From TrEMBL:
Residues 373-406 are annotated as: Disordered. PROSITE patterns: MULTICOPPER_OXIDASE1, MULTICOPPER_OXIDASE2. It comes from the Bacteria. It comes from Sulfitobacter faviae. Pfam families: Cu-oxidase, Cu-oxidase_2, Cu-oxidase_3. Keywords: Copper, Metal-binding, Oxidoreductase, Plasmid. Residues 373-384 have a biased composition (Polar residues). GO terms for molecular function: copper ion binding; oxidoreductase activity. This is Multicopper oxidase domain-containing protein. Residues 34-134, 217-309, 500-617 form the Plastocyanin-like domain.
Length: 621
């Protein structure tokens, strides 16, 4: 079992607790391969920190590595100096040094912690946090297990990034073959097949680019399928599974064949219970589910990658020594022209359109090899004092070049970090702030009556509204049953007074897959000004995904309230997944003064520039 750290000297409820963590080089054994990596408390098995709501914690972190390290408390509301991001909230922890974190525990639920230095997190520096509520759990269970997922690769993180920068499809083991061409020509006709191939070629993309990094071994609590993590139960008991996706790059689809999962918590916040057969866990998200096995039999906990490139099986068993069945991987999904539509500037999906009108900035001439990634202490932008919001002209990339074969001169888009768009004149086709979603005609959606607004795309094809219609990534449950959507999540109780946002900030998620450059509003982190918020304001952030990848966006220090159409009951999360070509709105209460990181939580996307600093001004930090 994962090792749990509790307050020293007492197992009772206390007002103060002290915890010790060491950061160590460790040998990682997945059963498929062995490698050196990073771990906590000298183990590849994730440490579990168990806190109590209302506790004042002291955490001593000793760095036994030969390089600087840090720990970020993912999803915890802490003072910004305790947030653990080098270059933004502190200087990091030097080799051989001990840094002491101190902060109050103001919440309950399931969270996690990880290094925010370099690529130590994908190399193994992650653990779990379980916070016991002051009273009892809203929905109690007889047993309680952490299910922490990871994607362990034989290559170290720095080598993976170097290979991706050299050749973006370096790790793509799912590229189409001549046999695929013959098959598709028989199904769709040779002319249509060749036209589709030309389209993808012009975009310098592959429809199989669902997961940037393949060849990984999936883990549950540091164990692979052959190592068989097991949770015990007695028939009839309710079992709480705290699912945490700590992967570097991999989304996991979770199922337990033969059991319904009742989702009771998302990113540490209680939601109205919803029974599902399967759910997708984006990188950095957490979900608590309750299952109730009634039979005296073994059940398989299956976490299958979204791209169907790997899976891990854990076991729920009435006794030790048993292992659940391991299913075959399901067919691999392919991205579609619908997923490509975000890259086309919202021009529609006419296959005869001039591809020269597509906008995607290459930021060539910029040196990405010197970025310290998630360790920002050496970046110029992290040394600058908080700056006011920039105008579009002030944040344009310094240099733009066109992709081969594409004319970018027709559609220039300004960078818009921190812009207040509420007064802008709006065009009909572009997703814009200030739009009254309540007046938009929407098709009827099962289980979503009473909606007053809805971000994301309409369910015109009967699918999930947070995917574009026709997306190749729209999930389908293994048994044809219920697959969880953000639209199903309703907060059990409102955290904030429901009010209109004062302004909208548009954040276009941009990049160039061929050169492996990732950015926001076409500007990578080390060229970007901070996003400035005023303390006490409520801000709407509109994500427009102009790439063909999913991006789990994580704002440190403040909650992200997803516009799922439930008004004051919209779900409250710390990480929000934005699917290809989709537009998704969140609202943020700027109630945490200081400087905060805001980034895509795919490790190599953040390292390659999809990152911002957010500054909350207006009250002494």
């Amino acid at each position: 079992m994962p090792k749990a750290l509790s307050a020293h000297g007492s197992t009772q409820v206390t007002s103060q607790g002290t915890y010790n963590i060491t950061v160590d080089p460790v040998r990682i054994n997945t059963g498929d391969f062995q490698k050196m990596g990073v771990g906590y408390n000298r183990s590849q098995i994730p440490t579990i920190l168990r806190f109590k709501e209302g506790e004042e914690v002291t955490i001593n972190v000793t760095n036994n590595l030969s390089e600087s390290t840090s720990i970020h408390w993912h999803g915890l509301i802490v003072p910004f100096r305790q947030d653990g991001v080098p270059g933004i909230s502190f200087n990091g922890i030097a080799p051989g040094q001990t840094f002491t974190y101190r902060f109050p525990i103001q919440q309950a639920g399931t969270y996690w912690f990880h290094s925010h230095s370099g690529l130590q997190e994908p190399d193994g520096a992650y653990g779990a946090i379980v916070i016991e509520p002051r009273g009892r759990e809203r929905i109690p269970a007889h047993r309680d297990y952490v299910v922490q997922l990871a994607d362990k690769h034989p290559h170290p993180g720095n080598r993976i990034l170097r290979n991706l920068k050299m050749q973006s499809d370096y790790y793509n083991r799912s590229q189409r073959t001549f046999q695929d061409l013959i098959r598709d020509a028989r199904m769709d006709g040779l002319k249509a097949t060749l036209k589709e191939r030309r389209m993808w070629g012009r975009m310098r993309m592959l429809p199989s680019d669902v997961e940037d990094v393949q060849g990984f071994t999936s883990l549950i609590n540091g164990r692979s399928t052959s190592q068989n993590w097991t949770g015990l139960f007695r028939p009839g008991e309710k079992v709480r599974l705290r699912i945490i996706n700590s992967s570097a790059m991999t989304y996991f689809d979770m199922r337990i064949p033969g059991l319904k999962m009742v989702v009771v918590q998302a990113d540490g916040n209680d939601v109205e219970p919803v029974a599902v057969d399967e759910l997708r866990v984006a990188v950095a998200e957490t979900y608590d589910v309750i299952v109730q096995p009634t039979q005296n039999k073994v059940y398989s906990i299956i976490a299958e990658s979204m791209g169907r490139n790997g899976l891990v099986r854990g076991t729920l068993s009435p006794r030790e020594g048993y292992a659940g069945a391991v299913p075959r991987l399901r067919p691999k999904p392919l991205l579609t022209m619908a997923d490509m539509s975000g890259m086309m500037g919202g021009m529609g999906m006419d296959m005869g359109m001039g591809m020269g009108d597509h906008v995607m900035q290459n930021m060539t001439g910029m040196n990405h090899t010197d970025m310290t990634g998630m360790d920002h202490s050496n970046m110029q932008s992290s040394q600058q004092p908080p700056m006011p919001a920039m105008t579009p002209s002030e944040e344009k990339p310094k240099k733009k070049t066109s992709m081969a074969g594409m004319d970018h001169t027709q559609m220039q888009k300004p960078a818009m970090d921190g812009m207040d768009h509420t007064q802008m004149q709006q065009k009909k086709k572009a997703p814009m702030s200030g739009m009254n979603h309540a007046q938009m005609q929407k098709p009827a959606m099962d289980g979503m009556s009473g909606m007053d607004s809805m971000s994301g795309m309409a369910m015109s094809d009967g699918g999930d509204p947070f995917y574009v219609p026709g997306s190749g990534l729209t999930p389908v449950a293994y048994n044809g049953g219920k697959f969880l959507s953000y639209a199903d999540l309703r907060a059990a109780s409102p955290r904030y007074r429901h009010r209109a946002p004062s302004r909208t900030i548009v954040l276009r998620l941009t990049g160039n897959m061929e050169r492996y450059i990732w950015s926001i509003n076409d500007v990578k982190y080390d060229d970007a000004a901070p996003i400035t918020l005023r303390y006490g304001e409520r801000v709407r952030m509109r994500f427009i995904n102009e790439t063909m990848m999913s991006h789990p966006m994580h704002l440190h220090g403040m909650w992200s309230i997803i516009d799922a159409g439930h008004g004051p009951r919209n779900p409250i999360k710390h990480t929000v997944n934005i699917n290809p070509a989709a537009t998704t709105d969140i609202e943020v209460e700027a109630d945490a003064p200081g400087q905060w990181a805001f980034h895509c939580h795919l490790s190599y996307h953040a390292r390659a520039g999809m990152f911002r600093k957010v500054v909350v001004k207006g009250r002494a930090a």
